Structure formats: structure tokens, C-alpha cells
Amino acid sequence: MISIRGVSKKYGRNLVVDDVTFAAEAGAITYLLGPNGAGKSTVMRMIAGLSRPSAGEITVNGRPLGEFSTTATEIGFGLGAFARNPKHSAARQLRWQARLGGIPIRRIDDVLTQVGLDRVAARPTGKFSYGMLQRLNIAGALLSDPRTIVLDEPANGLDVEGTLWLRELLLDLAAAGKCVLIASHDLTEVAITGSQVVILGKGKVLSDTTNAELLAMGSGPRPLESAYVEITRSSLEYTAGTRS
After folding, report:
1. According to the model, what pLDDT value does residue 85 have?
2. Which of 10, 135, 140, 196 is surrounded by the fewest CB atoms within 10 Å?
3. Considering the entire predicted model, what is its pTM?
């Protein structure tokens, strides 16, 4: 479980996250949505311990991240598909990550198979497609078999088969009791797999509802899209023109 209570973040005089409170529960897939500049990436970085909140508290499985002697079994992060050495193979990338986190090396073969990269484990990651890099990014998040998983736009770059694979993976993780938090713009997958949906705008929480409740707010053939557009309308910093 991830609990965020009254969290704010300032960079100088710029308040980019403003009194954000929400929770991501075990056994559920929680999506963090919002327009560009809404504060999603900043919230993710604070959860990962890469940035400190200016105010408020973030706990993972009931404790601040800094209190764990090792965070590996508690939480796994997939925050960037390009965080790798292009000369390293997929297996070597994960070996480095395992050693850094005190994770048994035997887990590497398991997660490479889980994400469908076992046949290209020896290939340099510099020759990977973006979709393959996303799978490697997800493998890194799963490497320690953590109780909580945080992913930033994991569907980016995936083809149709990859999207269907990711959908089943996320549902399986939640069914196994994992807490899954995802920052995303992919409303189709949110509608299919989401349990809870938190929408940010200009650093504030605009909505925190179940997926079913959010869908009920919408209308027309794409109710989630219509609900999202209505909720975020006042928080957009720019809008495209419309044809007359």
C-alpha cells in the first residue's frame, strides 16, 4: 500500500504539488492521471525517494521509505525505459540491478521470461526497440518480487500484443495481492484494468474515485474520456483551437 497525505512540493517559489492526498491499496490497480504539468511525475519521484516532499508524508506498506533496511522486497519502480547502458545486455542490466538491491541473481531468468525477453537476454539493450525497453523497465520493477509496484507510462511503445500482455500482467499482479500504481495517459487501459483513479491538475487532486464511479460520471460512447475532459477542463494550461 502507498499512502500520500498532505504532500506538497516546491521548487523555489514554484508550487508544483499542492496538498495531495490519496492511497493506492493492495490487490488493486490505481491509476494516476492528469494533463501534462499536472504533477504526476513529481509525485512518482517523491514516492521513489528521488525527491523530498516540502510538506506532508508518504508511506509504503505503513512506513516511510527511509525506515526500511532494504526497499527491494517492499517496492519496485519502473520510471524510465531509457535508464540503462546501451552496451549492456538485458541480463547484465538486471544483474547490476540485482546486486545493487541485494536481490538473488536467480530471479533474473524468471522475470526475463515473465516479460517475454528470455530469448533476447544476451542482446545489447542499445539494439532494443522502445517496446522491448519498456518490457525491460517492467522487469526491473518486478525483479525483487515486491509487494508494491510503481510504473510510469508502462504502455508507451508497446504494440498490440504487448498491450494485451501488459493488461494481463497488471491484472495478475493485482489478483496476487500486489499494490500497483501507474501514471498513465492511456484511458482505454484505465477503463479496462483500473480499480481506483486519481486525477491531478495543476498539482492538486481533482478527483479520487473508483473506476466505476468515474465511468458513471461520463456520457456518450467513451464515458471515461468525457468524464476526464470535464474534470480537467479548468486545469489545462493550453487548449487546441476548434474548427468553426
Report:
1. 81
2. 10
3. 0.93
